[in-house]
Amino acid sequence: MGRVxxxxxxxxxxxxxxxxxxxxxxxxxxxxxxxxxxxxxxAWAAGAFGLLGALVWPLLVRALLLVPALVLGLLGFFLNxxxxxxxxxxxxxxxxxxxxETAVAVAAVxxxxxxxxxxxxxxxxxDAYRRRLYRLTGRTRPRDSGDAAETVPGTVFLQLDxxxxxxxxxxxxxxxxxxxxxxxEAGHRLTPWRTDWSSQTGASQLGILHxxxxxxxxxRWYEKDTGRLMVSNRPASAxxxxxxxxxxTGDGGLLTFDGASRGNLFSGGADQLALVLSVAARRGRxxxxxxxxxxxxxxxxxxxxxxxxxxxxxxxxxxxxxRARLRRETPGISRGGTYPxxxxxxxxxxxxxxxxxxxxxxxxxxxxxxxxLVAYDEVAHHSGPHGRDTDQVLRRLDRAIALIAxxxxxAPRPYRIVLLSDHGQSPGDTFESVYGLxxxxxxxxxxxxxxxxxxxxxxSG
Length: 461
Hints:
461 residues, alpha/beta, 5-stranded parallel β-sheet, 9 strands
């Protein structure tokens, strides 16, 4: 109760400060009020906002589960602002008022301050800190203290998508990943491995999670016998590839027993899912993958923080892309259109949701968890595997790893954390930049089919 009162008091002071700074945010009647009366109004509004956030926000997020996570994160800003407007509306005598735009900004600050205050008060109290972790990760309560303590270690597999052995080794040497460096100094081993012919996530992850990647020759291929175009990152293809692997092996997958699959192409047989492509095409209640990010966005502070980071990442990509064009860096990959939003989803939304889900899995004591952190892979494909852009991503990945390792100390069982990668990357010119036409255009020309007019004017002939 003392902690709740402290958060309420800090939120009240924050509202008073914002009311003094923002001309379109008022906590007084038109004729003016005494300081005491204004403080009471602020306390009322802060209490109402906190109550609405605890009771109404989770219901709003659950109602919006069919909205893509990309949109839900941004929508959090406006939903949070709407809750603040409601809180001001119910203040006595209507003394609270704000423009909609101002309400969004005030609500974001309020959520951030309340979250920071709650964390600061809990940091020295292990029990309080553990309860906060359970709340942030969607766990309702710790394991019953009457249960026997689990002594068999669980395993958390963290796939650093696209991070090759040399990239990770250089990142450690350059001080970009201090958490990984500390593990290596403590005796952990960094071991390289080679993929087969298809060096990409679909083939590697299918083999790891389901024991077979037979007949997966590339990221994209055409099957003459079925007349289907298979693409590893399309839901329909992922469903079919997983079905075939299960039929070949006769086994549900690596995560069949008490496992969780987070951010992967395939489920691995897990019952607990979040952002898993092979179940993304499902509709209705069967799509447990969508429900996987409810726990994260049910906290308004999480939603606002992720939405803010999302916007920041979009701006960062636009600036980095412009810098690359001005410097005429090669090879040049198109980074316009919707790509800044795609990158922000991979480096912010997917990372935040997956890390929170893994934390919840560990606090629940699950036996095996496999999570894919795709941030580096997404950025490296467009910015190159080495450079300032990817260095920033590697630093943030290391912080995510450190957070997961910290939560392991509060889990009801010991955990072994395994870092692995599905493939590496090598810089190189694209087919079009070297030959002046795309591979698709070349095949069409060879088959006597029409090609775009620009192809006839290239140096390749």
